[in-house]
Amino acid sequence: MMCSRLSQKVAIVTGSSSGLGRAIALAYAREGAAVVCADLNREARAEIPDEARLCTDDAITLEGGRSIFVKTDVSKAQDFEDLVEKTVKAFGRLDILVNNAGISIESGRAPTGVHETPESVWDTTMAVNAKSVFLGSKYAIKQMLQQKKHDSGHGGWIVNIASAHGLVAAPACPSYAASKAAVVNLTRQVALDYAEHKIHCNVICPGYTQTAIFRDTIKNMSSYDEIVAKHPMGLGVPEDIVGAAVFLASDEARWITGTKMVIIKQFKPNPGRGDKGESRLRIPSRACSKGSTCSNCKRADVLCKGGGNQELRFRFSGLSQRPSSTTPNPEQGSSSATQTIGKSPYRTTSQSPESSRQGHLSESSTPDLQSEHQNITPAFASPYQDHVQADDATQHNNTTPLNKSSSLEHDATPVPFDYCDPRAHFRSYILATMEAQPCILFAILAVSARHLEAIGEEYFNSNEYERECLRIMIPMLNDKYAMREPDDSLFVLALLLRCLEEMTSQDDHHSAITHTVSASLLLRMSLHNSNPSDFSNAAMAVALRQEIYIANRVKRPIELEGRNCGIDDSLTPAPDFIWTFRIMSHAARVTNYAYSIDSRSQTLWDQLWGYLEDWGRARPPSFNPLNHINLDSCSDTLSSENCNLAANGARIFPEIYYLSDCPVAGNQYLELCKILLLAHDPRTPSLGLGRTKLIQIQEEKIRQAVRVVCGVSLSNPEYMVARILAGLVIGMAGELFRDASETTQLLDIVSKAEMHLGWPGIKVSPKLQELWA
């Protein structure tokens, strides 16, 4: 959700393509600022999968923000002058400058003292780390003085990024430490000189932060534990810094200037070289054996420079080709994110001062995927049937999903968007447009490949397909906003990318659970339609289903509502799919009631529960089960005990069979609503007699609702979405189950439901396994 702490402000962020600069740029955009991303290369370093997948300015655009990229060498005055000029031309003014760009050449080399440091290393480090702050401040302040002050009455905000090593010494990094110390003092000088113009200048001094530079740093340290020991509360991540950067650029910091803000988890500087009894950062004294990957490279998630096994080399570099013992790895030159698909993502190494500064790129050769697409027939549009026709001469040993992804059966497809849609809008559209719209082809390939990777089939080029899809989609998105109403292709692509993101693994420290194509962006797309089509309504209904799942996983409200999807919430006679959409829309309302920051009123709770009862009475007979076993004792009142057990005690869940997907989904959402309302009943007393008994009754009702949802899923296994919803309710109420006969099967259900998910933040099976151990 877009916030407004930086609304009506225009910001430049240098070094924005990766690491801390990227995190700050994204945070500024989410707070309402227009962001100019400045860097030598638009593409991120491929060592960080989340960054390599999508350029920073594209990520901001997809979230509904305003952003442009300007190629900038921050050590050159002309580049900085041009950067400010292009910023003003694009957005009319400049309010915020974040001097974030920096290098650490010494971290990519063996530790050296001053007498061992080449002059070129010193000059380059000073130019990028210190001179750039001078140049940035010079041209930014010139513009800030010329323009009208911001509505707040302030002249501008400069946020410099230094380092804890600008405050304390560290072994063997003289150039880096000196350059960062210069930034700290220059900050004070600028703050003093321009305070009368209400131009704020502050500096952030982070400790070790897990960015691509950090991964280079750790390679030359004898022990990862030595760095961790400096930070008793753990190492930092970019998200730990962005809050300070937002604050210092906001009106909340109106009385703050010339301040150094140390963002660190209790830093302990190393002793000098003479303290032999103490640990210090040093290069391993033992030469590399050229054998298995050593702990330093493994901990840093980087390529082993000395040797190591080939599989780890491919695993950690994020290369797109499936590893094999015969795969070549030639050194090649730079390539952009818009390169012909099939080129592998690249990584940056620090072999020399110039390469550290400009980016020394290497690639692994991969098959030419363009040639493999030439013989695809229009029938490939179906994600359910095996219609792929590819020239045998262009097959590359299963390195692409073309020979497998389309053979997924309907019940195993990773994109069941036509669930509860009798008109099958998505399948019909994809079949009709696949040949004419390669962007949709790449999106389908990406999702199919990612699904096969998730279930452990093989390793495919899913990242490359996704990148090519985004390369085509983002200009389309910008054009649609500016020129005309969005067509159906954008909705298809948006939903495919949202599904793909949920299947994409993240770094352990990545805590954001949000789609790049956010719900608010989808909502704006739908609002551009003066006359929404059935297809756009179907697309928004799929997005609503996705939002209900994520919102209940992370306990937050939902931005979408049923009315945004054209859903009629009345209880008048209608087809089955309308009745399913009605209860799904109600599940969104109940979710918002459960997780809203507003107080929960008893009146609203009664209204929400009343709709459940009315829906249950008015729904068509087709929503009754075709057959059931042990269902009679599990009535809608959910008050009986042990209704899920058969006479012999072998059955755990009721068997409930339905004719189609609509009653399956409708009855599962009904139980989800009951779980949420029972868990958030405002009449539950905080203290007093009877509280314990009431809570026990409510918890048993919740357990019975979970059993019904699981029973429906197990009895109708052809519907993958039903399995996913079963996994959701188990994650929500898993702590209420203790019996080993139940928890074993519950864990099996939730593990299978989460098999396709990559976001660690929405996986609960590891926690449940620990709970039930």
Automatic annotation (TrEMBL):
Domain of life the protein comes from: Eukaryota
Matches recorded under Pfam families: adh_short_C2, Fungal_trans_2
Compositionally biased spans, kind Polar residues: 318-372
Gene3D superfamilies according to UniProt: NAD(P)-binding Rossmann-like Domain (3.40.50.720)
Region (Disordered): 268-291, 316-372
Keywords: NADP, Nucleus
The keyword NADP is assigned to this record: yes
GO molecular function, one term: oxidoreductase activity, acting on the CH-OH group of donors, NAD or NADP as acceptor
The protein's name in its UniProt record: Zn(2)-C6 fungal-type domain-containing protein
Organism of derivation: Xylaria flabelliformis
